[in-house]
Design a protein that fits this description.
By secondary structure, this protein is α+β, with helices and mostly antiparallel strands. Helices cover 29% and strands 30% of the residues. It is built from five helices and six strands, in the order ααββαββββαα.
């Protein structure tokens, strides 16, 4: 009986050690995935910049046309990209995973009459809007991080230095109508639907 009891205690102890190791590995893997996915976008102080490879390494999430204030056509075209794995994770869980990066290219448009009608197409690049999902609150002292995201606008002249100073004043008001969908206009991205 003592041998079986000791064996049971030993096996239980090994199981507990294994469970702790698996949990620690899963947490480390989650942390390293976040750090790896965002290393090209976020520095150690929480400053964001536009990832250089977003057009080739990221997935197209969707496109928006912003209507002209007067007359036909659009004044801007917004093309939105998501970091690798973001779309699949959203489709699986219904939310953006920690570390997901969204990059919105904003183009001023040119509008012309074509055989198909009045057409607006991308003209000059106005800039980028970058968001990074942060469910852990990693940069509490940085005014560009809050409400579960890092937020920054970049003028076309410099993809490495944001012109944003405070996300609540510079970014969030445009996203207020999307508060209930984690600040993202998910209804405009058919690829997120199952």
């Amino acid at each position: 009986m003592r041998v079986i009891g000791a064996l049971g205690v030993t096996l239980a102890g090994l199981f507990m050690i294994g469970a702790v190791a698996v949990t620690a590995d899963a947490q480390m893997d989650k942390r390293s995935r976040y750090e790896g996915a965002t290393a090209a976008v976020v520095d150690d102080r929480g400053n964001l910049h536009v990832p250089s490879d977003y057009r080739t390494a990221y997935q197209v999430l969707g496109t928006w046309a912003v209507a002209k204030d007067d007359g036909p056509g659009s004044k801007q075209l917004h093309v939105v990209y998501a970091s690798p794995g973001t779309i699949a994770a959203y489709r699986k869980d219904g939310h953006f995973p920690d570390g997901a990066v969204l990059v919105k290219e904003v183009f001023n448009t040119t509008t012309n009459e074509m055989t198909t009608g009045t057409v607006s197409s991308a003209g000059t690049l106005a800039g980028w809007f970058v968001m990074v999902k942060d469910s852990a609150g990693r940069f509490p002292g940085n005014k560009l991080w809050g409400d579960g995201w890092g937020w920054s606008w970049f003028d076309a002249a410099n993809s490495q230095k944001t012109t944003s100073t405070d996300y609540t004043a510079d970014c969030q008001s445009c996203h207020e109508p999307a508060r209930q969908s984690d600040w993202i206009y998910t209804q405009g991205y058919p690829v997120l639907k199952k």
